[in-house]
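Morning. Coffee machine broken again, so started the prediction first thing and wrote up yesterday's gels while waiting. Chain of 178 residues, entered below exactly as on the submission form.
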Amino acid sequence: MKSLIRSFLLITVLGIWSCSADEKSLDIEEYTGPLFESENVKIMITDSTVVKVIMSGNKQLQLQNGDIEFPEGIKVVFYDKLGAKISELTAQEGYKAADDNFYRARGDVLVKNLQKKETLSTEELYWDPVEHEIYTDKFVTIETEEELIMAEGMRAPEDFSTYELIRPKDSIFKIEER
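Came back before lunch.
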């Protein structure tokens, strides 16, 4: 009887040990992809029922850590207090970190002031929706109706109505009509 009890205990202990060994040997990969994926996204920011900004993108990813990505491009349209479209920003991709309150646009970034017909182009630009400004430390070109201006770095209100060049280049080209 004692040997039967010992055998039973030995089998039970071996069974428990083999189960726990199997659990430890499992290679479980943690999912690191997006929590949410949305297509044809349009986000409207309003103030007292007046549209101030419309952000849109073909795809938006909400990541595990709260970051937001627009991997297939982003377009941000800015409106004045009367609801008229005043400027727009486009880029190949957009990004917003969960901990920061600004957006980063990358790849063929264009900002157009639709009223003054001025265009800024760069490879990377930041938009701060709280301070209502855009800025970069990268190389920029600004094309007005008369000039082509180049600089390293720029700061401007989000409507691109004015701008401050950080390190302007000596070359400012006059555009002549033919």
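The mean pLDDT is 86. Going to sketch it on the whiteboard this afternoon.
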